[in-house]
Design brief:
145 residues; Rossmann fold; 4 helices; globular; 7 strands; alpha/beta
Length: 145
């Protein structure tokens, strides 16, 4: 399904609708350029999970953990990792086993570790507008804004 959003708030709202439907073990694989809105969408997922944490980009930490929602949210940034071996070195399997949601920015860098992931492609179509395509996941037709 493809959605159009016209502001960061709308991008976040779409993420919240998806987050409310996610089940433990879900993996989100983001695709999109720098500044496309991946972190805004993740803020929405956190909101949909009921998390009260402030969601920020994990660019310098590689992974941020948000534990205040109905299940944990692990937000990864793979921009600086060369391959999926590096992902496994930081404990990817342990995160998967913790029963939360793993949201992975720059998933292209670790594509072979993204089996069965929900693919979210975010494309800038204007200064604040985005085309967001979601492949896989729960009843996506119900996510209309």
């Amino acid at each position: 399904m493809t959605y159009l959003t016209n502001s960061p708030e709308e991008t976040q709202a779409l993420g919240a609708k998806l987050g409310a439907k996610l089940q433990p073990g879900a993996v989100i694989a983001y695709r999109g350029d720098l500044g496309a809105g991946k972190t805004a969408f993740t803020r929405g997922i956190a909101q949909g999970l009921g998390a009260s944490d402030m969601v920020t980009s994990p660019t310098y930490t590689i992974v941020n953990e948000y534990l205040s929602g109905r299940m944990p949210l692990f937000h990864f940034d793979m921009y600086r990792l060369p391959d999926s071996d590096s992902l496994f070195d930081i404990g990817w399997e342990d995160y998967l086993e913790r029963g939360g949601v793993c949201a992975v920015e720059w998933s292209e860098n670790v594509a072979d570790a993204m089996e069965d992931a929900i693919i979210i492609s975010i494309e800038k179509t204007g200064e604040e507008s985005r085309r967001i395509t979601i492949e896989g996941g729960p009843e996506l037709e119900d996510l209309s804004l």
